[in-house]
Amino acid sequence: MDVHHCVGIVPLFDQLNETEQAQIDALVTHQSVQKDETILAPDQEAALIIVANGAMKVTQLTPTGHEQLISIVHPGEYEGESALFGEINENRFGIATTNTVVCRLTQSDFQQVLRTYPDLNFKLMRVMAHRLIQLERQAQFLTMPKIEERLATFLVDLSVSEDSLTFDLPMKLKDVATFLGTTPETLSRQLRRFESHQLIRRSGRRLTLLDLDQLEDDYL
After folding, report:
1. The whole model's pTM is what?
2. For residues 210 and 201, is the Cβ–Cβ distance under 8 A?
3. Which of 57, 105, 150, 218 is most buried by a 10 A CB count?
4. CATH number for the domain including 27?
């Protein structure tokens, strides 16, 4: 893998020039993991984990012991920034969903980077604020009593995020089901219902909203 690849693909560092990115990249350690291998766990040293290739599923355990999907981390995205500021990871895990390459930047090295490039502090604060909004949005999903409401909201949000009525689901259906607090079987039935009502068209992970206004009127 290109030694500049990890840092260069992360939006957090895109304001730095190539030489500065290379200096940060020299601090990271590279790790290749197999599908289903653990990348992030509570007993690990705090570090910023950047996905260079592949993908990482981030989950946490609920008070009842159930697994709750938090996010899917794709190339150029990262996880672990809150732990770098002292938050203790008590129940969050990161699992490779396919063969994956990650880069780790330890807490001490990351803090040195922030001292060297103080403008990154403000950008990181914006990123963390956006993460909090995403978590609050997911919490709202789980308070919606009906799966059709949660699914419609999820699809509309994806459409807005992609700025297109046609988009790819960012994760497997079973992970979407976990994210929305339902079962894969229930999710599949609801998707078929949306299709039969000509609200969506679906082919694998590719999905098109055929009648956005009606979807919002009926379920949001």
Report:
1. 0.73
2. yes
3. 105
4. 2.60.120.10
